[in-house]
Amino acid sequence: MSFAIILVSLFAVLHLPPLRRRPALASPRDRAAVAAGLFFIGAGVMHFVMPRWYAAMIPPQLPAPTFWVILSGVAEVAGGVGLLLPRTRRLSALGLIVLLVAILPANIHEARANTTAHVLPLPDLYFWLRIPFQLVYVAWVAWAGGPWRAGGRARVVAHG
């Protein structure tokens, strides 16, 4: 949930008049993509700053938790950078959606584990609220990155 506040705050800042006049931030969808890009870059970097915290979220059935922490951190940073660039935005959005679905079991595992063992020093409710917020992030990335843009028909260019 705290991550959602960061994402919405970035989006709001990008709506400030001096920023939204920039060509790369011209539309709300562009601003949403850039906000999500910055958000995922930051979230990915946190995997390297606090690897033990993220390793505690890896289900015990998966070997080598550090590998999964690094892999998901790299994927988040790469996806975030891709959202910043219009040419790679759609592919990056698709990759981030796959990543968000893939890490859902880790979030469910962490919610269960923290409820019983208090693995991480955060309230239990925090971990349970993260699960529905995965859907919010998926929806945000799908809209901003546009792998399925509504009304996105190809233009026909007449040659005369």
Would you write up a description of this structure?
The protein is mostly helical and 160 residues long. It has one domain (2-143). Helices cover 71% and strands 0% of the residues. Residues 151-160 have low confidence and may be disordered.
Considering the chains and any ligands shown, give keywords for the structure.
160 residues, mainly alpha, 8 helices
User: Which residues sit in consecutive blocks of at least 5 with pLDDT less than 50?
Assistant: 151-160
Tell me how many strands there are.
0
The secondary-structure element order is: HHHHHHHH
Kindly give the count of domains: 1
Class by SSE composition: mainly alpha
| Average pLDDT reading | 85
The portion of residues forming beta strands comes to under 5%
Q: Could you tell me how far the N terminus lies from the C terminus, measured between alpha carbons in angstroms?
A: 54 Å
User: Strand count, sense and closure of the main sheet?
Assistant: none
Question: Helical proportion?
Answer: over 70%
Please identify the oligomeric state.
single chain
Number of helices: 8
Radius of gyration: 18 Å
Shape: elongated
Short structural description:
This protein is mostly helical and 160 residues long. The chain has helices at residues 2-14, 17-20, 28-49, 51-55, 65-84, 89-102, 104-117, 124-145. Helices cover 71% and strands 0% of the residues.
